[in-house]
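We include this case.
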Amino acid sequence: MSTGSETAPGQTEAPAATHQVLINHEEQYCLWPAAKSVPNGWKSVFQGTHEDCLAHVETTWTDMRPKSVRA
């Protein structure tokens, strides 16, 4: 069965960036489709596969409280 994307034997195709990780002014994170425009108030800080983005958020976002309520 073909997926429509063939590579030569021995070649590996790098996975496409399907998602991005966004952060807002309160340092809250969001996974967002890479093909969509970043909404106002957010900025992109990472791009990769869905799994890579989840791993990035898990290691980076250690305190889920908004920045304004942290000591």
